[in-house]
Amino acid sequence: MSTQTLDGFPKDLAVGDLAEGSVTLTVDAAVYPLEAIYGAAYIFIDRCFVLLDRPKAGSVAVTLTSKKGPADAEALRRMAGEFANELLTQAWRQKIIEENRVILETVTTQALAGATARAAGAAEPSLDDLASFDFTEEAFDDPLGIAMSWEEKYKKKTPTEAASEATVEGGGAEAKP
Amino acid sequence: MIERRFHRDLYSTASVDGAVKVFEGFARFELVDDGDYRVVRISAKRPERERKVALELGNYALGLTRKGGIS
Predict the structure, then answer these.
(1) Domain for residue A93, yes or no?
(2) pLDDT tens digit string along B43-68?
(3) Can you point out the beta strands (E) in chain B?
(4) With contact defined as beta carbons under 8 Å apart, do A77 and A35 qualify?
(5) How many CB atoms lie within 10 A of CB A93?
(6) Which of residues 10-49 of B touch A (CB under 8 A)?
(7) Which one of A45, A49, A56 makes the best mutation probe of the B interface by having the most chain B beta carbons within 10 Å?
(8) Does the pLDDT of residue A177 top 50, yes or no?
(9) Domain-located, residue A59
């Protein structure tokens, strides 16, 4: 067996095996939650063979074996470093999830409660209601002509329309005090 | 023969057994309980095959454990 320590890693944290192309990291379960270890291990499944073990209570040993076969010390060091980084990412993500759990649950509960109340209230018309609805009625009053199209509003007036409009305006002016 | 030891705190029994079932066409397996461990003994015609199956089995068991939540 050709185990050796890896540059940049404490001896009790990471040990490499060049012949096997594997590295074993010992992770403190008090620092990294189990869910974070699972998350990081799962991400490495596509490039490594991952085996978890519990050498003693409170710690988890993660053995990563390269799928490419025997590896040099630099490759093992890189593999261990990337795993350690991923572990940190997963742990941080877990912490954020824990901190935001109450907010997430509250928002989800409110959204579900709102959807349920709307469904139970039957505020929306049924198909029968729509079938019997009188669509001929004017939708709303539009005294200022806001809903009128531009062509309709500013179309060229016929002489009769123009005269009657002038009469109305003239009469209105006279009526003013 | 190769032996793989799966700690019960980390791998659910169902995951290990499920993984063995998936790979049983590739090697011979023997399942044994040993304290906190579910031990899988793998035998195949060639040592390389035993090693390969053992490694793949570990990944598969981890995948099943992760899929089913923490054991």
Answers:
(1) yes
(2) 999 999 999 999 999 999 999 998 87
(3) 2-7, 28-34, 37-43
(4) no
(5) 13
(6) 10-11, 36
(7) A49
(8) no
(9) yes
